[in-house]
Specification:
The protein has 378 residues and is mainly beta. It has two helices and 23 strands.
Amino acid sequence: MTITARNVLVDGQNVHHVLTGIGSLTGSGSTGDGGAVKLTVADNITVQNGGRVGASTSGAGDAGDVTITARNLLIDGQNADDPSTGIGSRTERYSTGNGGAVKLNIAENITVQNGGAISAVTFGDGNAGDVAITARNLLIDGRNTSFFTGIASSAESDSAGDGGTINLTIADTLTVRNGGQISAASATTSGGNITLDVARLRLFNGGAISATVYGGFDTEGGNVTINSGNIVALNGSTITAQANQGRGGNILINAEVFLHDAASTDQVLNASSRITGNDGTVQNNTPNTDLSGSLTVLPTNYLSAADQLGDRCGTSDPDSRSRFIVQGRGGLLPGPDDPATAHPVRCRAAPPTLSEATPPALSSASTFATAAQGFGNR
């Protein structure tokens, strides 16, 4: 099955106990492999409320691969009444075929939340498929649900197959929070491996990366390999490769910075087994950074706040307080309840007027003679 579109919405809201979505099924009587599911979407894919995109097998044939290419992918199981929202491949109970691979190539962002999942699961005799994802950013958020939220490749109880591997290549940030998980688990067989190549890894509020097995003495936990610029694990977040009775897996951390709030790294990185001497190995290649050597002791003598403050306004005022006074209405018109006032009249001086009389003509001799005479009689 091949679909090409600009946007795809798979919504199972108000549909109960019936698969709603896009898929390929290999029947119980079939010996051939199932058909592949391929979606090529220019912009966005949304799978929500119990919707599903997947391939499965109920017989001897293998399930088909699921391949999706898009710009953004949202998987949200918020309104689903069962943990079925997502993208995946699975083998059904009593089947003997293997599960198909799940391959996602997302140019920008992947968001998996509220019980949504990307999974490759086996309930039969065949092995679970592998999960391979590339994206710029990946967010896994398990808030508002008790269902598993995240990415899984697992072999469930009563199955005889092994769990598959999970390979994530995230160019920017991978965030797992609020109980979200990346899990390669197995109930009775050895677990699959998890490999993360990511620029920044963020684990918050119980976010977990786990390659764990719950089988007998002959089982072995999967390996976890993380290559990252920096890793942050806070509030009970963990990276584990544990075993119930078998041997624990191996954990390899290659990072420039590894920041956590646990009492010790062992509480975050755990490759233990319940059987003494069967623990796996933990190799943390993060450089040891002693923050205490770069801390500066603060001075014990405090500066006087009064000496650092400038003079207050109005120091010449006996009251020594600043004032902010508003007078008049400025350019605002009077309100309907304000009293009517007469507009002020500005008085202006009348311009001088010229006399209508003809000014006397100046006479040369008489005028100067009169002035001289008057001066001399004083």
